[in-house]
Amino acid sequence: MAETRAACPEPSRRVYPEPSRRACPERSRRVSRRTFLAGITALPVASRALLVGAAADPRLVNTRVEKLYKIAGCTQPNDLQFVADGLWVLDQVDPNKAFKVRPEDGTILVTLQTESLHGSGITWGNGALWIGSTKGTDPKAPPLTLKVDPKTGKTLKSWPTPGSGLYGNVTTPSGAHGMKWVDGKYWMAVPASGKLFLMEPESGEIVRSIPAPGVRTHGLAWDNGYLWCVESDGRVIYKLDPKDGATVARIQLTKDDPAPHGLDIKDGVLWYCDAASGWICRLSPA
């Protein structure tokens, strides 16, 4: 997603508060994996990313990028969600439209005007679309997560996105990026928080969270018990263990490939979109 960034050194992160948890006293000098991960989460985003990268060298998965098509009228595709009768694509041009297309050729089946602003995440569950409105109309308030009527585009419910705020050189509060429905809940990437949140959809409450694999996390995909997560700045797609956020594999794209933003998976094959170039892409075995 192309967010407003200032050409200056990275400012301190400012994050809208989320529910706090009381830390337990240290009982020994031995550091558990859980304590180590919690320590990483508490670090500034850039430092955390370096430490996580130094701690493990996950298996590199070799793939080939297929540039499939661009969707007419969708100039900045920012997230993807497969459904039984098509592929939903969220355009981040404000106010955001969602397009349901034929995956085979990008033919538009439905064009839906939503109330989302600069949206970066879309998923499907409980008969509705769920959209991360990454920006808000009031910079003093956190951006919202929306439950959207798939026929009218109207917002049915909305909640403040947990962990939203500033990160990197972003100068206005940033909310949810990638979203993915899994077993009655949804995962959501929020770069400013340095976390991926598992959410209760109808209440907007946090179930739990895991550390993000990098700074500018974006699209998500669920793959037989594992969670793929885009890190756009590094052009990396990480395969994570959703229990603790441990990286088990990664895909490294090149500077010549369309940049990864939105993500989903169909029949075991990852698809992604690039809001900068407009391409819908598929990753095939190299």
Question: How is this structure best described in words?
Answer:
- The chain has a single domain, classed as 6 Propeller (Neuraminidase), CATH 2.120.10.
- By secondary structure, it is mainly beta.
- The radius of gyration is 18 Å and the shape is globular.
- The strands form 5 sheets. The chain has a 5-stranded mixed β-sheet, with no helix packed on it. A 4-stranded antiparallel β-sheet has the order 2-21-20-19, with no helix packed on it.
- The longest helix has 11 residues, at 45-55.
- The two termini are 27 Å apart.
- The protein has 2 helices and 21 strands.
- Strand 3 (77-83) and strand 4 form a beta hairpin.
SSE map:
Blueprint lengths: L32 H10 L2 H11 L3 E2 L2 E7 L7 E7 L2 E6 L5 E5 L6 E6 L7 E5 L2 E5 L11 E5 L6 E6 L18 E4 L2 E6 L4 E6 L4 E7 L5 E7 L2 E6 L4 E5 L6 E6 L10 E4 L2 E5 L6 E6 L1
Parallel strand pairs: 1-18
Antiparallel strand pairs: 2-21, 3-4, 4-5, 5-6, 7-8, 8-9, 9-10, 11-12, 12-13, 13-14, 15-16, 16-17, 17-18, 19-20, 20-21
Top keywords for this entry?
286 residues; mainly beta; five-stranded mixed sheet; four-stranded antiparallel sheet; 2 helices; globular
